[in-house]
Amino acid sequence: MSRDIYVVAEQRDGSIAKVSFELIGEATKLAADLDQKVYAVLMGADIKGQCQPLIEAGADGVVYVEDELLKEYVTEPYAKALTAVIKQCEPEIVLYGATSIGRDLAPRVAARIHTGLTADCTKLDIDPETKLLMMTRPAFGGNIMATIVCREYRPQMATVRPGVMQRIEAVPGKTGEVKELKVAFTDADMNVTIKEVIKQSHKTTDITEAKVLVSGGRGIGSAEYYKTLQELADLLDGDISSSRANVDAGWIAKDRQVGQTGKTVRPNLYLACGISGAIQHIAGMEDAECVISINKNDTAAIFDVSDLGIVGDLKVIVPKLIDALKKY
Ligand code: FAD
């Protein structure tokens, strides 16, 4: 049995998801502790050309499965392809992004190969004594951090939140092993008919991928005000996100929530508007490169993690920012 680490690389329309590069970065650190290699698993149609960026991002090699049936993500054929890769290559560890695809695929594969799965991890380590993977994730509604170890079953598998791990610097021209694994699909493997793929009109659909986030807290006062924040975000070529208070109030969708029970983001700029800076919120945005906060309370905790704090009414400041950027 190999003791290598496999990262399930997510691709859509020819581009690899950011989380896959983050996981390769993390896997290279874990692999160094185990003295093993890192492989990416790529599945799709006409994807061989996408292997090289994964190697340049740190993978020692890529195992790919190519088939027209894998053109769009569908649970059954993807689960079959990945199960075949795991059965043949026998990795020690398999990592997935905790994305909608990873969350769908990982448990199906875990059931097929009779192993465990720790979902939604925020930290991974190798136990120096046992060499087992220690998978840490929030539990009991985010009130404790639980570290889970899979002692008996193999591979050890985890889904990992996007934005938590860091990619390593790419090495252009790096070489690695690229091997194709043939999987015999039948019509019965495709239990879904895709009639149409409708792309979201949003420029960035995943806040973990946004370079600029304009984030609204309870201080914005209403769901309606997100339109103003969206206008500001558009001018900055960014997207909107939120504190949990506004998600709970039904002002914005859950997939926009930043924080311990939301998403972890690491944009170049995080503009916090009317967010107090609760510890659960800060847990999801403190690694942003630059944080600018607007809050009328000069003692708000968000200022403690801000590079620039603006004390004042956001309803005055945000329109001024929009006007200034329009002139820019
Ligand atoms: P508030 O705390 O109400 O802050 C509103 C801020 O807006 C205040 O600082 C106020 O001064 C300011 N303000 C008001 N009006 C204006 C104005 N006109 N101009 C400028 N400033 C103004 N929260 C998260 O965000 N993400 C999570 O993932 C998360 N997970 C949690 C998990 C658990 C287990 C628990 C217990 C809580 C969690 N929370 C999370 C909730 C968190 O504790 C806070 O309740 C929440 O973050 C508060 O949101 P807020 O900052 O928008 O609202």
From TrEMBL:
<dbReference type="InterPro" id="IPR014729">
    <property type="entry name" value="Rossmann-like_a/b/a_fold"/>
</dbReference>
<dbReference type="InterPro" id="IPR033947">
    <property type="entry name" value="ETF_alpha_N"/>
</dbReference>
<feature type="domain" description="Electron transfer flavoprotein alpha/beta-subunit N-terminal">
    <location>
        <begin position="5"/>
        <end position="194"/>
    </location>
</feature>
<dbReference type="GO" id="GO:0050660">
    <property type="term" value="F:flavin adenine dinucleotide binding"/>
</dbReference>
<dbReference type="GO" id="GO:0009055">
    <property type="term" value="F:electron transfer activity"/>
</dbReference>
<dbReference type="Pfam" id="PF01012">
    <property type="entry name" value="ETF"/>
</dbReference>
<feature type="binding site">
    <location>
        <begin position="243"/>
        <end position="244"/>
    </location>
    <ligand>
        <name>FAD</name>
    </ligand>
</feature>
<feature type="binding site">
    <location>
        <begin position="274"/>
        <end position="281"/>
    </location>
    <ligand>
        <name>FAD</name>
    </ligand>
</feature>
<dbReference type="Pfam" id="PF00766">
    <property type="entry name" value="ETF_alpha"/>
</dbReference>
<dbReference type="GO" id="GO:0033539">
    <property type="term" value="P:fatty acid beta-oxidation using acyl-CoA dehydrogenase"/>
</dbReference>
<feature type="binding site">
    <location>
        <position position="295"/>
    </location>
    <ligand>
        <name>FAD</name>
    </ligand>
</feature>
<comment type="similarity">
    <text>Belongs to the ETF alpha-subunit/FixB family.</text>
</comment>
<dbReference type="InterPro" id="IPR014730">
    <property type="entry name" value="ETF_a/b_N"/>
</dbReference>
<dbReference type="InterPro" id="IPR014731">
    <property type="entry name" value="ETF_asu_C"/>
</dbReference>
<dbReference type="InterPro" id="IPR029035">
    <property type="entry name" value="DHS-like_NAD/FAD-binding_dom"/>
</dbReference>
<keyword id="KW-0285">Flavoprotein</keyword>
<protein>
    <submittedName>
        <fullName>Electron transfer flavoprotein subunit alpha/FixB family protein</fullName>
    </submittedName>
</protein>
<feature type="binding site">
    <location>
        <begin position="257"/>
        <end position="261"/>
    </location>
    <ligand>
        <name>FAD</name>
    </ligand>
</feature>
<keyword id="KW-0274">FAD</keyword>
<dbReference type="InterPro" id="IPR001308">
    <property type="entry name" value="ETF_a/FixB"/>
</dbReference>
<feature type="binding site">
    <location>
        <position position="218"/>
    </location>
    <ligand>
        <name>FAD</name>
    </ligand>
</feature>
